[in-house]
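queue> pop job 88
queue> type: inverse folding (structure -> sequence)
queue> payload:
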């Protein structure tokens, strides 16, 4: 610190005045002047302000404050001895007049005033020695001067701090638990000013600080409500247990597919997060002309982490049957496949069920696996494992994109799933951890999942 202080330059008042006059002349800008003289602009403006107010004398450094001479050691010893005697006298007086163990009585306060006035030591030193705040002492002196007594400065024996009074606490919590509209405030949550006003209307005068103490001591704290993932399906537990039972006993010749649709989404410039250099804004037009719309139907096989997808014009039963036929051909080597999807109407249509029953009634040698349904509970899209894959795909190739056409967007999506499938063919791994490190949530089936991440859809 001393090195910094020694390296700091010191300018004379004459030099500062010349700089200020040059700046006021306007022959060059203040920035150029300060750069040429190697001084900060803030110093120039400070000098100019002082120069205008007081001329050259205002630019002189203030003289260092002279240190008060120290008292002789003999005087210090006499003062300490006096303070020790005062403290002993004060303690003896308190023991003789003690009424309240934790505070001073009227007689004790009178003795403090008398002791301080007769002391040969300063008031500050005396009060500091006996442990009395100066503000309290001068308040007692004013009270004694105005009224001739200190009775009003003494608390009653049964005094209780306002934050500890049960009647005050009761009123505060009664008001706080009621909606503000009951007291004429057009709000849904309390503000401190309005809470204090409502408590006062209820017949109790208490300050804001005391209300804060009462609320905090009771353990209350501010919390922001969290959105809870819930399903209103009355058979939620039964359906969930069925899926977990199937996954727990899945054989090598069986496959479990998580199925859903992505979209429709418009092909246009998309927003997202990206690294931006300083000073360069990152904006996306609010109103854009769409270059087309895409809907993708896909199935994720949980054992091999392979995605099968194609593009649809609509979300309906025909597209589900198309996906079902595609899976029958691609996974013809399996004996049984399980299909898990949400409760959309085209996932449980009569036409789809009849198609599945018809195909299952065919003999085994006709080819193709048997199909069994394991539907998700209603309103539980957050349990659909493929939603995590869609979130990863969206973050990778949809966000921050500006594809020129639908075909270009399709090519990017196809390449993403192709590379992803190739990776898990070379590195076999069941869906369970974060798939490929690009999906934001765990892709294994669990009742605590939140696969449908709104940040990436």
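queue> result:
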């Amino acid at each position: 610190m001393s090195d910094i202080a020694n390296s700091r330059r010191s300018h004379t008042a004459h030099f500062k005045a010349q700089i200020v006059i040059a700046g006021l002349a306007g022959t060059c800008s203040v920035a150029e002047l300060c750069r040429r003289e190697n001084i900060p602009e803030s110093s120039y403006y400070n000098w100019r302000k002082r120069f205008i107010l007081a001329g050259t004398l205002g630019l002189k450094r203030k003289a260092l404050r002279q240190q008060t001479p120290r008292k002789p050691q003999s005087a210090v010893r006499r003062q300490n001895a006096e303070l020790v005697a005062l403290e002993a006298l004060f303690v003896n007086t308190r023991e003789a007049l003690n009424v309240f163990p934790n505070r001073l009585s009227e007689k004790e306060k009178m003795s403090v005033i008398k002791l301080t006035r007769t002391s040969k030591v300063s008031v500050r030193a005396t009060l500091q020695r006996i442990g009395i705040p100066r503000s309290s002492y001068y308040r007692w002196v004013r009270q004694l001067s105005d009224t001739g007594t200190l009775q009003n400065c003494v608390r009653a024996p049964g005094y209780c701090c306002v934050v500890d009074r049960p009647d005050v606490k009761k009123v505060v919590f009664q008001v706080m638990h009621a909606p503000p509209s009951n007291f004429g405030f057009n709000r849904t949550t309390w503000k401190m000013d309005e809470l204090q006003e409502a408590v006062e209307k209820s017949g109790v005068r208490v300050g804001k600080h005391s209300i804060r103490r009462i609320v905090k001591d009771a353990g209350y704290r501010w919390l922001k409500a969290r959105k809870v993932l819930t399903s209103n399906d009355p058979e939620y537990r039964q359906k969930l247990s069925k899926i977990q039972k199937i996954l727990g006993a899945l054989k090598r010749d069986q496959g479990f597919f998580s199925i859903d649709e992505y979209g429709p989404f418009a092909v246009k410039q998309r927003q997202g997060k990206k690294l931006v250099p300083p000073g360069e804004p990152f904006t996306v037009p609010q109103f854009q002309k769409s270059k087309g719309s895409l809907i993708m139907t896909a199935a994720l096989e949980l054992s091999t982490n392979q995605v099968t997808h194609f593009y649809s014009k609509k979300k309906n039963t025909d597209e589900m049957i198309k996906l079902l036929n595609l899976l029958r051909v691609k996974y013809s080597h399996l004996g049984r496949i399980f299909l898990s999807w949400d409760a959309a109407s085209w996932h449980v249509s009569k036409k789809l069920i009849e198609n599945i029953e018809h195909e299952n009634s065919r003999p085994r040698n006709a080819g193709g696996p048997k199909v069994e349904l394991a539907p998700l509970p209603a309103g539980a899209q957050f349990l659909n494992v493929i939603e995590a894959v869609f979130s990863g795909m969206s973050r990778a190739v949809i966000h921050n994109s500006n594809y020129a056409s639908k075909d270009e967007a399709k090519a990017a999506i196809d390449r993403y799933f192709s590379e992803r499938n190739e990776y898990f063919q070379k590195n076999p791994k069941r869906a369970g951890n974060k798939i490929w490190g690009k999906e934001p949530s765990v892709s294994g089936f669990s009742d605590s999942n939140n696969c449908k991440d709104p940040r990436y859809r």
